[in-house]
Protein 1
Amino acid sequence: MDRLRNIFWLGIKELQALAKETILIIFIIWSFGFSIYSQATGLGENINNAAIAIVDEDHSVLSRNIGSLFYPPYFKRAEEIGPGDIDARMDRGDFTFVLVIPPQFEQDIRTGRTTSIQLNVDATAVQQATVGAGYIQNMVEGEVARYAERFNQPRGLTQGLVLRRAFNPNGKESWFRAIVALGDQLSLLTIVLTGAALLREREHGTLEHLMVMPLTAFEIALSKVWSNGLVIFVSFVLSLTFVVQGILQVPVAGSRILLLGGTSLYLFAAAAIGIFLGTIARTMAQFALLMLLTVLPMMILSGGMTPVESQPDWLQAITWLLPSRHYITIMQAIVYRGAGLDIVGSELLTIAGMGLVFLLASISLFRRSVMTMK
Amino acid sequence: METGDSCLARIEGVSHHYGKVTALHDVTIDLPTGRMIGLIGPDGAGKSTLLGLLSGVRKGQAGTVEVFGGDMRRAGHRNRICSRIAYMPQGLGKNLYQEISVRDNLHFFGKLFGQSQIEREERIERLARATGLLPFLDRPAGKLSGGMKQKLGLCCALIHDPDLLILDEPTTGVDPLSRRQFWTLIDDLRAERPQMSVLFSTAYMDEASRSDWLVAMDRGGILATSTVDELRQRTGRQALEDVFSALQAPDGKSDQESLEIPSRAASGDEPIIRAHNLVCRFGDFTAVRNVSFDIEAGEIFGFLGSNGCGKTTTMRMLTGLLSPTEGTAELYGKAVDANDLETRRHVGFMSQAFSLYSELSVRQNLILHARLYRIEEEKAKARTENLIAQFGLSDHADAEAGSLPLGLRQRLSLAVAIVHEPELLILDEPTSGVDPQARDGFWRILIDLSRQKKVTIFISTHFMNEAMRCDRISLMHSGEVLISGRPQDILDAKQTDDLETAFVSFIEEALEKSGTHAIETASPSEESAIPAKVAQQPSKTRAAFRRILAYSHCETLSLSRDPIRLAFAFLGTLALLLIFSYGISSDVTNMSMAVLDYDQSPESRDYLSAFQGSRYFSEKAPLRSQAEAEERLKSGKLTLALEIPAGFGKDLRKGGDWQISAWIDGANTMRASTIEGYVAQAHATWLASRPQSAAQSTAPMLVARYRYNPTSESIYAMGPSIPALLLMLFLAILMAVSITREKEIGTITNFYVTPTRRSEYLIGKMLPYLFIGMVNFAIMAATVVFLFGVPLKGSGLALTLAAFLYTFATLGYGLLIAAFTSNQVSAVFAAAVLSIVPTIQFSGMLQPVSALEGAARFIGNIWPTTYYMHMSVGAFTKGLSFSSMAGDLLVMSIFGPLFLLTTAFFLKKQEA
């Protein structure tokens, strides 16, 4: 009971102190507001404004039609270049795609002869190359089919493959990115806030003062976890309600309660990591460097940028140890697929366990780190 | 002007503000040349600001400051005279590099004044011999005692024979013996070079009386300037302390009621604190050796000694913050145990530095501590109000603790320390930096606590008059207690009435006993500290070159002694390269797929074979219903579900309509797009393999040629481009931190007061990192080639040259960021954000620059990473030759110098 009281009052002190940090508050609001919005919408779709060129050796109606297929926002207007320019200009990186239409292409189509168009792709930009090539293929083949139809070379339009996307039928990038951005900001701010709160006390000498009072390291650590966690939790709820669901119109398929529950567990784990880093670092500058080396991998490997399945097996084993990976999995499952407790339960337990491990580790380091300070 | 030689400096109408705080207000004085000028006044009187303005470290705000007959606001004049001035800032060894050795520090300062190797060796030898530093030339400056640090500071200041020596509180926190030696040294120097003027500020009145010209300051104004004797006559007082008080309140009487201390009857009880043979070692350094003492209830026990003599360490062992290496510490008969919370409730603690929450109000601080000591809510509130009234804090109850003046803050700290009515108070230098009147007020409270409330007080101090007020005192020197007893007994033992004299003789005695220590504070030898012959001036370029190398050498040494920065510099990029390259992969392989085959015909199996053979798909147990498909997609265990309708085979044979559905998990949109592509590809492959498809034959196959990276694997794209991002990120951060660190620690003063030019400073700081950058480039390039197996197809020479120019550019960018940030944390964050964002968004990493438009395109074109990324990708995957990269190299070579020039333009050579 006494312990709970101490944890409560120390946490209240954190909140009182935070309330005076105007710059930090602005930073939090910016991160959960504008930053989420810009990350969700900023990069646009997968393929955007791709630079394309055409080598037209046919100069027919059809080849001109193909040339006019490309327009913003996916592609820039196609530029016509000569066949000799292809290598040089692709080397310079002027174009990602170069379409080569052979001579007598239109005639071959009309007479039903086999012919082909060559598409040169700069595959150094892998993502854009794969997706863009798919788009171009569809567009060109569609155009040719329409043209061929006029010369009685029909295609069975009702024969074929229908692609459907579950959970995000229109493939909206912003849906995906908004949720990932939310998770990233959560990791970053929770770690920075709790770690910095601890280091500030250490640098100002107030930590030493706390250690000579009838308080345990556990109480000091936990008070920072709950108070800073609460601030981020509130920001998260507001951001989810007003920015993600409100402005960005991302539907949450599953239970909001479950999502918030998972978020608070993750906050606990992230705050514990912040405390842990705060006990290792001696100065704020060291903390900042350590934090970069921790938060960047947490964001990159969480499955938010590229799926965890694409990582090599040995790396997957390592990323299993990152709470952020489990959190992103939970978020995606609840938000898009509407998963329930039965599906995400084990992940929740994993996160809670990790939080506990980090908290216990930092508490055992706590006293020693205060002692060696000087 | 008649100034000439008789006037050292003239100050006219000078005012200075820090935000809302006025440090100096309309100050006008003339300082005579060739004198020893002392500045006295309480904390915050404006002494440091005045010295800063005179040395040229601080930028003047209003009024004129003339030194050596020229205006200090003019940069040209400052440059001309800066080699005639030496400035030693406040704080022990504040302008020294703590990590590097005494010798390296001295060489560094010698190089800044363009001295040659031989000349430096000679001067260092002389100065070190004169100050007794000779045996310690190889010890890191940070490991010297306070007194030795100040001597080293003095050596560094004297290395170029200045005509004006400015010392800002040079002896604060130094033990009495070292203090004496310091001033003897100054006297000797002045005897040798009478033309040298010395200007110093001090908190010790006895030191001030050494000066032959005195400036008394208070609250940003000048009270009086004259010789000491004249001031004594004017005020009719003898003791300088009284003289100063009289100057503060000219018509008032001596308002210092002398402090009455009721004598204490020995109780004869069991001692409350009992320390027995305490020893504390940090590595091979012994901070405290064999310290023993007993303290009785209600006693005021004083602990004296210089900074770093082991006082604080002993106190920390008593509070349980530190475990003794050997020996025992007992409180109330129980060994001090860090985990025993019960004992802590009876102890109040106040540490050296102000350690309350400066962002909370006075009342909030008090009530928080009351609550944490588990005082009931009602009582806690009453106690808080009580203390506020008792300590005279009523007017400030709701003010932020950080905004209070020092004296009030100390009172608040004491109030907090006794909020739970402890029986024992441990106070670590509670009155340092507080002016005499405030100190007396503080002591009144302590005496009241001791005599009325029977509180035991264990206090450390370095003021002798405070020591005289204690019941018993102990003197500590380099980890040992030299003497312990009642103040009067100690005076009697040495037959003196001055405690300081007594202590100096105790220290000397101790030094004589232990031979090793004698060297440490060996008194200055007879030999002259000033070189006999005037050294010849080196050529300008040579001197500049020396200064550049001085900064580089110094930076290399201090970096090599900071393990975290070093690890960050050499391992950070590699770690992140591995994480990024393996972690960011858009290759989708082995994605889980399941089939709902309603047809089960040879045709449907034929269709599926197009998927089964591919490395992209890995087939899981077949589906039985659409509901099951939905369920398994939802759980995330399935990424693709294929549905083949009943009658597919029949329709296919007859040429009827058929439709195959593919359900893709769309949660991750990027991956979904990629999978769509694969599915369409598999479908097309199957279609093409069907011989009789008449309709198909006319449709042109679009033949895609994936150039540079035929297998479309991410690693070929990531391998060459990630290092570009990492070089930018790490080098910019390291560079920015290296400059802001100097700003924070205070060593940047050396750049302000020496003839170092901005470009020399910047280039000097940059050189070690240029090397680190190239090492990082080599490590990463080797990793990309040998570990990731991405062959380097193009010109390696061009790539290396590009990396060099790029490193230069990123360091220049880091410098630019440092010019606008004032502390290391903001430098790290600013450098991280300002290098990651443009690099990722605009340099062609995610989207080719050719896809950018408008402002983004513009930024992409003026961002160095764009060009390096282009060359790196070009050299690795496109196999470009040197000549085809020449254009990019040319552009690349502009960035570094451009950033450097811009930084030089914005970097200030003075403090605000």
Protein 2
Amino acid sequence: MKPVFMTYTKKDLINLAVCMFLSVLIIPSFITTEYWYTSILIPWLCLALATIGQQIVMGYTGQLALGAAGFMAAGAFAMFNLILRVPDLGFVGSLIVSGLIAAAFGILFGLPSLKVRGIYLMVATLASQFFIIWMIDKFGWFKNYDSSGIITAQDIVILGKPFTTPLAMYFVCLAVTTVLTLLAMNMARGSTGRNWMAVRDMDIAAESMGVSLLRTKVQAFAISAFYCGVAGALFAFCYLKSLEPVAFDIKLSFKILFMCILGGLGTINGAFIGAAFILLFPVLLNAIGNNVFHGAIDATIISSIEQVIFGGLMIVFMIYEPLGMAKLWENLKQKLSLKLQSSNVKNLKSSLSKKS
Amino acid sequence: MEYERKFKIGKPILEVNNISLSFGGVKAITDTSFNVLEHEVRAIIGPNGAGKSSMLNCINGIYKPQQGSVSFRGQVVPNITPNIMAQMGLSRTFQNLALFKRMSVLDNILVGRKLHTKTNFLEVALQLPKVKKEEKLNRERSEEIISFLEIEDIKDTPVGKLPYGLQKKVELGRALATDSTIILLDEPMAGMNVEEKRDMCRFILKVNDELGTTMVLIEHDMGVVMDISDRVVVLDYGKVIGDGTPDEVRSNQKVIDAYLGVEH
């Protein structure tokens, strides 16, 4: 029998259809409170996109990089300047070019990966974080010489139509995230992803198979920064609606790193799970604080508890399930299908015994 | 009865010219030369620490020897790196297994098809028709190799979970997937039981016979080496002490001394 090769199996297509059905039809018709769009769904999509970027460089290519927020800042400010100075590009064009500008930074700051690895590379990539933020702060041109420190983001206009309501912005984020996620999946499953993983698992063998370490690592850094750049632009324009370098500080980089690790290194769906967890967990804790303890616990204590739990979870996951929540989800699905099968067998047996 | 070979042994395809390699003060290889003929099975043997693996690493470009050169089809290869050698048609396996542990057997072998993959990441991201076509061809070739090595039942298993003997097979498969003209095998049978060794020998000979691939292998097990190789080069303390057919080497006094020890 000849092997049949397909990029997407039937199961993938069903998953995709379910996700699209939920996000395009169910969510908009059942969730009407603005809060959900402006504070949960939009940042979730943006950060999931940035986490995919982090996944590509860290989960797939195995390069410990910490500076996603720097590339996000590059993307966000590139977007601001492009809309301001090159209005002909339009929103989508500007978004792509901002991603490419971030990718250029990615190439620049990915170069140390050829010489250093592990924790030393992490320190080296931190440079991107500090350099980009410093550059934006230092040169007034990037902020259009605005003295207040916070610039309002321009309105989103696509093909002459304004996208200003939370729902409209949600759809913008959803469309961009969906397209880029599909592209990332294609790369991860194809020859590109295999080269990344080969470099991650055993670089010397990869090189002996003709995989160029230079090209593969720099490519991963560039693509990763592209994703972060686009995510940063969406984050600023759809979520923050303003631009300030402080919003893209090291804390955000760490947040994305946590999303990446908790979600599951080397998985695309892990990016979404990790981002959802890190975003929703504080909301959950606050709700518990308000409804169970009726505000008896101070908000600052709750936010400290949140940090403690994140830290603890990181350790637990690193030790017991390095593949993160995506793997837990897989295991759960497997167990359920096994249970289903065994109950089917039981039914069959009982029906057989009845007959006899 | 003399066996008729489909691929007749030809001209030297790979030559090692006066290579010397040292790590700090330790001399691993001293002024070593030998050649490999096209379509032959060539073995490098020698006691522990004789410099066999270092030799392979020099040929493959992982180590840069202080002196000497490597020629491929009569041409000296300048600036030799693993990548350049791979592009010239030389593939290898490693002594301590260098598989991509978290990837499946099929994916490991597919990485071996890298040099037959011409599409770039953008084309892959967009899944253009030519990407699908190329991927299909690469997968078909990989599946062929998998069934050739009789490892169909484990093709979707992550390599890290497989026992040692099977991992060695997968590594051979990955080297085969490159469709190289020369394959270097660094102790392909180390740590295997008799049955696995016999299997491995069969595969090595089958590859050489059916595809005409030139095989250079390092092996400890003298019996195995003498059975399957056309010519043997013996290293001791980084020097060539014997070179010739298995019979010639077996009767070489220096080789006997090196292996059995000699009274001084």
